[in-house]
Amino acid sequence: MTLTEIFAWIVIVITAIKILTILINPAKWVKVVQAVWKNPRIVMPVSLILAALILYNLLKEISIVQIFAVMLFIILMSAASMSVYSKEILALAKNVLKDKKVIEKSWLPILIWIILILWVLISLL
After folding, report:
1. Cα 95 off chain centre by
2. Helices in 1-39 by DSSP H: which ranges?
3. What's the CA gap between 18 and 14, in Å, rounded?
4. Each residue of 4-61: pLDDT tens digit?
5. 8-state DSSP, 55
6. Are 1 and 10 in contact (CB under 8 A)?
7. Local structure of 39: helix, strand or coil
8. Rounded alpha-carbon distances, angstroms, from residue 75 to 2, 46, 72, 80, 90
9. Full-prediction pTM beyond 0.85?
């Protein structure tokens, strides 16, 4: 089994657990969400470290351009999933953008996105 297949299995297991939990007992999933998002100072670095490790390993099998193509699929699936909550998403967006420190709080992920975008542009050109 390749590392990419292991990553796919991780997505399968987490997604299946999430869907089953929401179908059976949504309150339990809320507890999971609360536990994960309780400490954003841990969520961001852990997420970025795991993303970097996964990206490093994915690049052994596929290109950064292919990764961005897959991201388009994920973005569209996420948009479809969240579209039923458009009012809540719009309210969240307005609240986030009202925060005068939004750039200060998000500078590292923004910088990483810029680097990734430039990398893909260079690969495409």
Report:
1. 20
2. 3-24, 26-37
3. 6
4. 999 999 999 999 999 999 999 999 999 999 998 998 889 999 999 999 999 999 999 9
5. H
6. no
7. coil
8. 25, 21, 5, 9, 16
9. no
Domain residue limits, the chain: 1-38, 39-125
- Burial of residue 116 (CB within 10 Å: 0-12, 13-18, 19+) is middle
Tokens of 37: 């998002």
- Residue 2: count of CB within 10 angstroms of its CB: 10
CA dist 113 and 55 (Å) reads 13
Residue 112 corresponds to which amino acid?
A: I
In one-letter notation, the amino acid at residue 16 is A
- For the record, the structure tokens of 81 come out as 């999933």
AA identity, residue 76: L
- Residue 66 corresponds to which tokens in the numbers above? 């292919």
The CA R_g of the chain, rounded to the nearest whole Å, is 17
| 98's tokens | 């009202």
